[in-house]
Design a protein that fits this description.
CATH class of the largest domain: Alpha Beta
Shape: globular
Order of helices and strands: EHEEEEHEHEHEHEHHEHEHEHEHEHEHHH
Strand order of the largest sheet: 5-2-1-6-7-8-9
CATH architecture of the largest domain: 3-Layer(aba) Sandwich
Helix content: 25-40%
CATH topology of the largest domain: Rossmann fold
Structural class: alpha/beta
CATH superfamily of the largest domain: Glycogen Phosphorylase B
Number of helices: 15
Length: 379
């Protein structure tokens, strides 16, 4: 049986399905976590402005071998997040390859150097694309550093078209690139729920439901969503829901109150099982972000059978949004364009019904299985 070491910061809900699936493909996966963040204590997320634990899995560590760094003093947000005795364990276990989930922490750089020293194949998987909003000077410096650094990796997993373009831009040859589509656990969101009871609970029995899901921060740009709700405030057949929390929480509430909007509700932060319930009764997701490396809420929505209107600045848009088929894309801040696309979907019952079928078909190809198939080819 082939063996792979996976290096990451902490148990992340979206990565767990991948770790659990390796056994199915006769690959032994050992995952090295620099932190127990989110396991033994509630996650403190400054952008959500609250503490919580994800509720997707009862036992997120079941189904694979896990190692945790001992006596870790740094938080997951620190560059110096590392893993003690990493070289000793990697050397002892004789891995065929090492999969590294980033470059912005000491643990990633340390793992890369150890792998090179021990002659282990290196595989890099990051989410970055070329749309990030940084200054030209920073972009140039980043380009110079990465162009050299990436030469030393053996293989790369790209999560989508824009991520692939990022690698190509930095000189990574095509033969080193392997497709590993970004995914959520589709089956989790496909679960049949009692939709009538859920609609009744929210007092939205006969309304079209339009949702925003995300942190209430400037980058996520809930402003466009609020403007959309304001535009359609007199249409009593449509109701807007904001799911999330963050520093713009007061701004959103103030906007709703000052414009006397009765067609929008703020549900606050909802964990995965509760979000799944809201997706199941929703008709449309609006992703308004100024920038996203991907935007996994698109995957979640589509797995739930919900079409999407997303900004062109979001990484998932190029791969998942087919105009008029699974949704529409618009330029962030172009409210007129957003209104136009919204009308095409929400007021056309036949089109909406067709789109709901299309998104479920589209998302079936975005699974953890595709990632493992690529890794299997590599090792």
């Amino acid at each position: 049986m082939k063996k792979i070491a996976i290096i990451t910061t902490h148990p992340i809900q979206y990565q767990i399905p991948l770790f659990k699936k390796f056994n199915k493909y006769k690959i032994k996966a050992d995952v090295f976590f620099a932190s127990t963040h989110g396991l033994s204590s509630k996650i403190a997320d400054s952008e959500f402005s609250l503490k919580f634990n994800w509720d997707t899995y009862k036992n997120p560590l079941k189904g694979y071998k896990s190692y945790f760094s001992k006596n870790q003093k740094n938080t997951i947000f620190d560059f110096n997040l590392s893993f003690k005795n990493l070289e000793k364990i990697l050397k002892r276990n004789h891995y065929d390859a090492i999969l590294i989930f980033g470059w912005n922490k000491t643990i990633y750089l340390k793992a890369f150097l150890i792998a090179k020293k021990l002659g282990i194949k290196t595989i890099l998987r990051v989410e970055t694309n070329l749309n990030s909003k940084i200054s030209l000077i920073k972009k140039y410096l980043k380009f110079c550093i990465l162009k050299v650094y990436l030469k030393f990796f053996d293989y790369f997993l790209y999560i989508g078209s824009l991520n692939k373009d990022f690698y190509s831009f930095h000189g990574v040859p095509k033969k080193k690139l392997y497709y590993a589509p970004y995914f959520v656990e589709n089956s989790f969101f496909e679960k049949n729920l009692n939709k009538k009871n859920l609609r009744k609970k929210l007092n939205l029995k006969n309304k079209k439901i339009v949702i925003f899901v995300g942190k209430l921060i400037d980058r996520k740009n809930p402003h466009d969503f609020l403007k959309l709700a304001h535009k359609f405030q007199n249409n009593k057949r449509i109701h807007f829901l904001i799911i999330g929390s963050g520093e713009l929480n007061f701004y959103c509430k103030n906007f709703i109150n000052s414009h006397k909007l009765k067609n929008i509700s703020m549900l606050g932060f909802l964990n995965q099982k509760k979000i799944r319930e809201v997706y199941s009764i929703s008709d449309l997701l609006i992703l308004t972000s100024k920038y996203e490396t991907w935007g996994l809420v698109v995957n979640e929505a589509m797995a739930s059978g919900v079409p999407v209107i997303a900004t062109k600045e979001s990484g998932a848009t190029k791969d998942l949004i087919e105009s008029g088929v699974t949704g529409y894309s618009y330029n962030c801040g172009n409210i007129k364009e957003l209104f136009s696309h919204f009308n095409k979907i929400i007021l056309n019952i036949k089109k909406l019904k067709t789109m709901k079928k299309n998104v479920k078909k589209k998302i079936k190809k975005f699974t953890s299985d595709e990632t493992i198939k690529s890794i299997k080819k590599i090792i």
